[in-house]
Amino acid sequence: MVMMRSFPERPWFILLTAAFLICGAMVISTVLRPSIPSLCSTPRASSDLRPAILHYATSSIVPQQSLSEIRLSFDVLRSISPCNFLVFGLGHDSIMWASFNPSGTTVFLEEDPKWTQSVLQSAPDLTAHTIRYPTHLSDADHLLQSYKSEPSCLPPHAYLKGNHRCPLALADLPSSIYDREWDVIMIDAPRGYFNEAPGRMGAIWSAAVMARSRTRPGDTHVYLHDVDRKVEKTFAMEFLCKKYLVGGTGRIWHFKIPPAKNYSSATQFC
């Protein structure tokens, strides 16, 4: 999604397939949705997806995820949209993700303010926030070994907003992020391929806390990209849990995490 600021060209049929998927989401939303009760948020954004179709049909820049990886989350978004969709990362594919959730709430979190400004110049209708990550990839091993010594990092006391005691917590996100329960969370950022990069440790832990804190009916779908890398894979098994892993393809895993309200006395994530 957003690990690289430039994307290699891919076969033209991927562009057409992306446009087809977006068009399919539009048809399903506008034709079938009235007969299906909404389990997610109140519709907010416009469901006119024609600008997104035009964008990808006329662009040589395609999403970083493969078609099979995109399809994994597309199928869920198609079935529950309009919903609340939180994406860690902002990039050339963000218009596509927002289009897969017509009339829903889709928000992007990006680490680079210049990159955020650049993307929003070409896609001003997206909702994106620049955030700061308190970690570095080089901290990963220490964080994994030490987090259990801090009660605010552990269930049932783990929380996000203002939690500066837990080094894994994204404690300073915009209030609107904490105020909403997210039905789908995509983790494809921040950068995690060199030691000085933030790494995705905090994003993974925070997504797990968001999912466990859910009070509404239903589970939270969490997608984690780049699971071929050690940190992503290790932290996913520690916090998102193998027992909640329900699918995967290529370099992406799909977790379906239930709320923790029925087992609030648990002292570990998995």
Automatic annotation (TrEMBL):
Its EC number is 2.1.1.112. This is Glucuronoxylan 4-O-methyltransferase protein. It is an enzyme of class 2 (transferase). It comes from the Eukaryota. Keywords: Methyltransferase, Transferase.
